[in-house]
Amino acid sequence: MSTESITATVTVLNPQGLHARPADLIVRLANQFQCQVEIGKEGEWVDAKSILSLLTLGAAQGTELGLQATGPDAADAVAAMKTLFTEGFNELGEPIDA
Q1: CB atoms < 10 A from the CB of 86, how many?
Q2: Which of 9, 50, 59, 81 could form a disulfide bond with 18, CB atoms 3.0-4.6 angstroms apart?
Q3: DSSP character string of 13-71
Q4: Domain 5-88 has CATH 2.40.128.100
Q5: What is the domain partition of the chain in residue ranges?
Q6: Distances in whole angstroms, Cα of residue 71 to Cα of each of 3, 5, 6, 49, 57
Q7: What band does 94 get if pLDDT is binned at 50, 70 and 90?
Q8: pTM
Q9: What are 41's strand-pairing partners?
Q10: Span 44-88, pLDDT tens digits
Q11: What span, in angstroms and rounded, lies between the C-alpha atoms of 96 and 70?
Q12: Which residues are part of the catalytic machinery?
């Protein structure tokens, strides 16, 4: 079993921040992977597979969060999480053409 650890930084883009719906999306996504996935803010790290833990972060729009995944599919988990955050949890409306 690999103990590979992958980290990244993401920003909460959606206007309502990390409320129940985005937290649920994170939990559902994290549970698709075998690795341990954590999300942290200001030194506080929580299990991304626990909705209640995620909500304790109180991450408003603009908050930078750390992602850390450890295990066999860590790179895939972090890549998928980054996509979820950059898409604003599908709460940003239609993309604007640059």
Answers
A1: 12
A2: 59
A3: -STT-S-HHHHHHHHHHHTTSSSEEEEEETTEEEETT-HHHHHTT---TT-EEEEEEES
A4: no
A5: 5-88
A6: 5, 7, 9, 14, 23
A7: low
A8: 0.89
A9: 44
A10: 999 999 999 999 999 999 999 999 999 999 999 999 999 999 999
A11: 35
A12: 19
Q: How many CA atoms lie within 13 A of 60 on its CB side?
A: 0
Amino acid at 13: L
Question: For 22-40, what is each residue's pLDDT tens digit?
Answer: 999 999 999 999 999 999 9
Q: Rounded distance, CA 73 to CA 62, Å?
A: 28
φ and ψ at 62, to 5 degrees? Answer: 95, -10
Burial class (CB in 10 A: 0-12, 13-18, 19+), 83: exposed
